[in-house]
Write a structure and sequence with these properties.
This protein is mainly α. The chain is built from seven helices and two strands; from the N terminus they run ααββααααα. Helix 1 packs antiparallel against helix 2, helix 3 packs across helix 6 and helix 5 packs across helix 7. The model has no long low-confidence stretch (mean pLDDT about 90).
Amino acid sequence: MDGIFFYWFCWMIWVVVTFLMPKEKTRTMMAVWILLTLTFSNLYISVYNVEVSMAYVCVFLGSILYIKSLKPLSYHLFSAMTIMIGYSSILIWESIAPVWLFMPRLIIIPVLCVLLTLVLTKGLSSRLAISTLGLCGGELLYCILLTNLSMPDIVGELLFLDTLLIVLLLLGSIEIYQIGKNKFFLYLSKVIPKGR
């Protein structure tokens, strides 16, 4: 069942990007990026005896290009590195003592990554960029550590892509909630007179 969230949420995001975003170069690039990620989701290459998912490569390269456009770049890179260390630490903790994870992996890891992202940055574009780059870097770091311990793992398998898409969905849902809350309070301030 690995990959079910990835496929569903990727197609949902592609529909939103293609049909709801304004017709600009950014929309086209994002739609192509999502389609390439979906296309390469079952394709793997071998690099130094390590299997790497081509979907992971697409996401990783896209996140690097995306984070380059954000200012200040050094702060966003530092934030992504913080998420990278946090994500790989959770994976190491899970492999050493899985009993300590009191919730399923697809719940606890995205929630912790989203909380860390919310603490580090403001704005949806910054949050999406640092969480994507941080999770990709954390996955790579974790797989390199496992390979050094002679326990090679697949970099960017479908379980990782599920986790990534759940994080992105949670960040998008939080942004929609904040926008809705602000509009609701703005509406209330216009309806209810200030003297009461």
